[in-house]
Amino acid sequence: MSDSHTLTVSEVKKETPNSVSIAFTIPEKLKDTFAFKAGQYITIKYNKDGKELRRAYSICSSPKSGILKVGVKKVEKGAFSAYANSKLKAGDTLQVMPPTGKFILEPNLKNYVAFAAGSGITPVLSLIKSTLEEMPQSNFLLIYGNQNIEEAMFYNEILDLQKQFPKRFSTEFVFSRKEEENAKFGRIDRAIVNFFLKNKYNQTTFEAFYLCGPEEMIDEVSATLKHNGINSKQIHHELFSTAEKGLLVEKHDGNSSITVILDDEEEIFDMPQTKSILEAALDEGLDPPYSCQGGICSTCIARLKEGKAEMRKNQILTESEIADGLILTCQAHPTTPKIVVDYDDV
């Protein structure tokens, strides 16, 4: 299920001093495999010191463009991000898993707005392009926060989109470390949200809100929107990192007999409840899909067919999806002596 494919890098472009965009050549036979929806991500496999690492990166190109491109910001102690920003070049090959993700557009609405900070612009840029290219009746407002212009990924590309679609696309820049002309100074917080939505754009009724960036920003923007009467179903978010480690409430000091259904095959084995279902499956030599292992992507979702499990944390699944039996296997620990998990039925 988690099969990856060898793709050739067609371009590595420096976007800021600490970020690059990576474009891939997609062979004709893999065009359908790597077709994507705006807002989705790919997972790149990278071997470092004999250990396989998996990293998820959001696609910044639009589906209509025919280009598969991601943005990669260098992070402290980031193995692949450091490599991508310093050594990766056109002609190199990478192991890439097909696109996935739930941070996608609700189609054909009149007015969209996105709040993005830092590298959170990556999937939002894809959403913007898709809206402008495919929904001529729709408008998009971007509120984009960074330390300064130099660190703003895709800054010139965003300005070009404004020139190309002056009546349908607007951008408000927010910089936290340097005052700039025609930009707000500070961070994307409650005051910024209220200023734009209740003052500058108070005549516009936004129907969908897209949030991408650090957890603290997403929590504050989401809370502000809800305080202003926005229905939670209208708010969509994508986390790039989380400070929350997650805690288990129930006891997990026994063993469980687990049945894992993967690629139409069943594997039955015993596992300690102190381990996550994903960890146990990997230890057993299985190859389930996964990426971040931090509970902030949707790659490792499976359906709980029998038994119960508790998740340390969940930033992805809705209450209805959990009620329908879906779990994040990287976060889920069994709480019953027997459990059946189906990766195929999602």
Oligomeric form: single chain
Q: Total strand count, please?
A: 19
Number of helical segments with 4 or more residues: 7
Mean pLDDT: 93
Model regions low in confidence, pLDDT < 50 over at least 5 residues: none
- Helix share of residues? 10-25%
Whole-number radius of gyration? 21 Å
Could you state the order of secondary-structure elements as H and E? EEEEEHEEHEHEEHEHEEEHEEHEEE
Domain FAD-binding FR-type: 2-106
InterPro entries: 2Fe-2S_ferredoxin-like_sf, 2Fe-2S_ferredoxin-type, 2Fe2S_fd_BS, Beta-grasp_dom_sf, Cbr1-like_FAD-bd_dom, FAD-bd_FR_type, FNR_nucleotide-bd, MRET
Domain 2Fe-2S ferredoxin-type: 256-346
Protein name: Ferredoxin--NADP reductase
Describe the structure.
It holds the Pfam family FAD_binding_6. Keywords: 2Fe-2S, FAD, Flavoprotein, Iron, Iron-sulfur, Metal-binding, Oxidoreductase. This is Ferredoxin--NADP reductase. The structure is a single chain. The protein is an alpha/beta fold. Helix content is 20%, strand content 35%. The protein has 7 helices and 19 strands. Strands 4-3-6-1-2-5 form a 6-stranded antiparallel sheet, covered by helices on one side. Strand 3 and strand 4 form a beta hairpin. The N and C termini lie close together (12 Å). The relative contact order is 0.12.
